[in-house]
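sorry for the late reply, my laptop died twice this morning and i had to redo everyting from scratch. anyway the thing you sent over, i finally got around to it. pasting the sequence first so we're on the same page, its 309 residues, then the predicted structure underneath. double check i copied it right bc i was rushing
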Amino acid sequence: MSGTAARRQLTPSGAPVPFSRRAAVRSFTVGGAEQVCRDFAPVTDGDPGLPPIFMVHGFRGDHHGLLRIVEALPRHRVLVPDLPGFGAGAALPGRHDVPAYTAFVRGALEELGLGPDTVLLGHSFGSIIASRLAAESPELISELVLVNPICEPALEGPKGITSKAAEFYYRLAAALPEKPGMAVLRSPVIVRGMSMLMAKTKDPGLRRWIHAQHDAYFSAFANRRVVLDAFRASISATVRDVAAQLTMPVLLIAAEQDDIGSVKGQRLLAERIPDAELHMLPGVGHLVHYEKPAEAAEKIEDFLSRRHP
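ok and here's the structure:
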């Protein structure tokens, strides 16, 4: 994707242009709970042999968070579910931990009829889930793409104090009675504070849009148990736990200003993966999917074009 195409993703005010790709909304059942996936058909007359891309979003988000990358990959069929308990995804009957979410992805690939040519992409917490699935069931996918991968434990990251503050926040929400606990979790002030910490762009229009996205979708979870389980899962595992077991080609799209994964940590992660390619994007932090989706898509297209000529 050219620099011009990347710039076209923003309006003169700095906000992204309206999302234009239409999706078929597909329902399926995993673990006894009904789940929802957006299935985007290719919008260009590209090579019909291009692999489909299945995307896994991050903690507290839903499919909306990955739509800018979807928009920047018009030649591919892209499928983006809401994780169970978030967005339109129903909560699972048991704990929402990494094994449960990994089982969800495995079940979704089967229920949606996706074959071994599928590219699996995970962002942030989604990178933990995607890499676990890739390590346990490599026969299900062809390539693995990790955006803002979780390369080191949260409390060891470049801004460990931020992670500790988040841990305190979620522990407080768990300790309170149900109603005040939910109020703490959905506090607009807290959500805006998280958004302000993560956004690195200096563009005021883009910052306003990012905050609006978090305001709209960051509290779309089924119940307190879901979000507390998922938070514990997000700080209890990393991609590096399974790095040596990733036998397929792996693309890592990391960010120089990511408060959750240091540059050193991302490089060490790449070294542990047998067949890894690392791209470090400057001037962006943990919100590559919001701030530099076109650049991420360009790396993905290049990576896949060399493996699917």
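The longest strand covers residues 23-30.
thats about all i looked at so far, will dig more tmrw
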